[in-house]
Amino acid sequence: MSDAYDFPNARLLILSKAPIPGRVKTRLAGSLGARGAVELYKKLLRRTLTMADAARLCPIELWCAPDTRHGFFVACRREYGIRLRRQCTGDLGQRMNHALNRTLADGRHAVLIGGDCVSLGMAELRAGFDLLAAGWDAVIGPAADGGYVLIGLRRRCPALFRGIVWSTPAVLAATRRRFRRAGVDWAELPPGWDVDTPADLRRLRRNTRWYSVPPTVPATRNPAAAPLSA
């Protein structure tokens, strides 16, 4: 496979936890059992890595918690040729901020995602990198649950991740407020969804084409300039 990338100076950062029963997809353990939840988590992450690797947009970094030593991470590095990075300690905001800042400090654009968002495909990732390359300060992919499934930055924005109660329906609204206060010009992708709850799992099972990639992904300016695309 060619080593050529469309955005060689950018990085795709994927946050991941070691697949240990009782520590990943805990809200799905009642439906799948702890080990079943782990297997789903691994399948979702592999799906994301396979898709991102095939897109050849930029180098991929898997940001691992609590560290990079788990055998599953080592296997992913071997299979996909990705770089493994260790997440810092702290809440989700601190960990995202750390990963993004490390990348931005090297002068690279960065897009950060989780490994379990089945709505993200090649088109969404490309749209995110295209927007950053076109000069937008930031890009965000809203989630149906009030959070977001993708965030990309051209420059540091430390206040973006402070004082937010994570995993609540208020995350996206709080992030938009911080963008405005910081003078960040951002664009938004159409809403997506990830697999966290039994309702998400039922949706996943109904969606037999969850590996498919939509052909085009429109983006909007921030809500102050234009309505969010449906």
What can you see in these coordinates?
- The chain has helices at 29-55, 71-80, 92-104, 122-133, 171-181, 198-206; strands at 10-17, 60-65, 83-86, 109-114, 138-142, 148-153, 186-188, 220-221.
- The chain has an 8-stranded mixed sheet, sandwiched between helices.
- The radius of gyration is 17 Å and the shape is globular.
- The protein contains 6 helices and 8 strands; from the N terminus they run βαβαβαβαββαβαβ.
- The chain has one domain (10-221): Alpha-Beta Complex (Spore Coat Polysaccharide Biosynthesis Protein SpsA, Chain A), CATH 3.90.550.10.
- By secondary structure, the protein is α/β, with parallel strands linked by helices.
- Mean pLDDT is 89; it is low at 211-218 and 223-230.
Helix residue percentage: 25-40%
CATH superfamily: Spore Coat Polysaccharide Biosynthesis Protein SpsA, Chain A
In the CATH hierarchy, what is the architecture at level 2? Alpha-Beta Complex
Sketch the major β-sheet: 8 strands, mixed
Q: How many structurally independent domains?
A: 1
Q: Compute the number of strand runs.
A: 8
What's the arrangement of strands in the largest beta sheet? 3-2-1-4-6-5-7-8
- Using the coordinates shown, work out and report the CATH topology: Spore Coat Polysaccharide Biosynthesis Protein SpsA, Chain A
| Coarse structural class | alpha/beta
Order of secondary-structure elements: EHEHEHEHEEHEHE
Radius of gyration using CA atoms only: 17 Å
Based on CA inertia axes, which overall geometry fits?
Answer: globular
Poorly predicted segments: 211-218, 223-230
Question: How would you state the average pLDDT, rounded?
Answer: 89
Number of helices: 6
Distance separating the two termini: 36 Å
Q: Strand fraction band?
A: 15-25%
CATH class: Alpha Beta
